[in-house]
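[stage:ingest] chain + small molecule (NAP)
[stage:ingest] validated
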Amino acid sequence: MRRVIVVGAGFFGRLVAARLRDRGFTPLVATRRGADVRLDAEDDAELRAVLERDDVVIDTAGPFADRTTRLARVAIDVGADVIDLAESLAWSDAILALDTVARAARVRLYPACSAVAAVAGACVTASGIAAPEEVDLFLAPASAQTASGATVHAFAGSIGLAIKTFRDRRIVQVRGFTESRPFPASVRTGGIVEGAHAVLLPRAWPSLRRAEFWVDPNMALGRPVLSAIAELPLLAGIARGVAPIVPARLVGRRDGEFATVVRAAERVAAFTFRAARGSYRIAVEPAVMAAEALARGAMPPPGVVLPNAQVDPEELFARLGGVGIAIVRA
Ligand SMILES: NC(=O)c1ccc[n+]([C@@H]2O[C@H](COP(=O)([O-])OP(=O)(O)OC[C@H]3O[C@@H](n4cnc5c(N)ncnc54)[C@H](OP(=O)(O)O)[C@@H]3O)[C@@H](O)[C@H]2O)c1
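[stage:predict] done
[stage:export] C-alpha cells:
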C-alpha cells in the first residue's frame, strides 16, 4: 500500500483525512502548524524533506489562487502523485502546463478532483452524450459549515470583478454575479462565478462550446443581493471586504446541493446531488476515491488526469449515495 499524505487540515483537509481513516487508511496529515508532520506547501526544503517516491498526496491547502505549483513540481521531481481540491482556474491552468514534465516523470496530477471537475466530469460521462456542447455547474454550498477562510476568499473574489468563463469555445471575461441561471431541479438561482471547470472540462471534451458555473451562496437573500450589488462597483468592493467577516455559521444554511446539466443538440441530461446535512461530502469523495485507487496500485496513464478519467462515475454515485447524498437524474 502506498503512503497517503493529506496537506492542509482546514475544513476539507480534516474531512478528507477522516474519510480515508473510515476507508481503512492511515493518512499522514501535513500542515504548517504541525499535525503528524510540519509542512509549508510553499517551502521547497520542507517539501523535499517530507515527500517520497510513490507517495499519494492530497493537496487541500487553499486558497489555491494564492499558491504556486511548488508542491506539484517537487512531487514530479521525487515521483509522488498529487490530487488537489483546487477551485481556482489559474491554479488548474498552471497544473495543465506541467503535463509534459509529469508524463516524462511518470507522475499523475489530478487537478480540482472535487465537485467542479471530478463530479461534473463524472456527470458528463454518465450522460452518455459523447460530444457535449454545453455544461452548466450549479452549487449551493452548506454555507453554515463550509464558509472557511479559503472558500470565502475564493468566492468573494467573484463579486462584481472581471472573472473568466468558457463561452463561444474560448475563455471570456464577465463580471462575477452579474448573470444568473436557475438550478435544474430546485427553486434556487445561481450567480456566475469563475472556476477550474472552465479550463479542465473543455480539455477533456473538446466538443464543448460553453462550460459555466453558477453559485447560490445559500444564505438569507444572498444571491439576489449579490447580483444587485455586483453591478455597483463601490458596494461590490464593500461586499468583497465584508464577506470574510460575515458570521456564515449564523446566516448560512446547512442543506446543500450540487448539480450538472449537460447539453448537445436535442439532448439534455441533468444530475442533482443534495443533502439536508453534509452535502460537502460531494467535494471530498472523488479525491478519496482517486487516492484509494492509486494507493492500492492503480496505474492510470501519467500526466494530468482530466475530469473524464479522475473517477468512475457509477462508483462515485454509489459512494455518494452511501454517505447520504440523494441523487436525482433527469
Ligand atoms: N473544487 C471544489 O469543488 C472545492 C470544494 C471544496 C473546497 N475547495 C477548496 O479547498 C480548499 C480548502 O478549503 P477549506 O475549507 O479546507 O479551507 P480552510 O479551512 O481555510 O483550510 C485551508 C488549510 O490549508 C492550509 N494551508 C494554506 N496554505 C498552506 C501552505 N502553504 N502550506 C500548508 N498548509 C497550508 C491552512 O493552514 P493554516 O492553518 O496554517 O493557514 C488550512 O489548514 C479551498 O481552496 C476551497 O476553495 C474546492
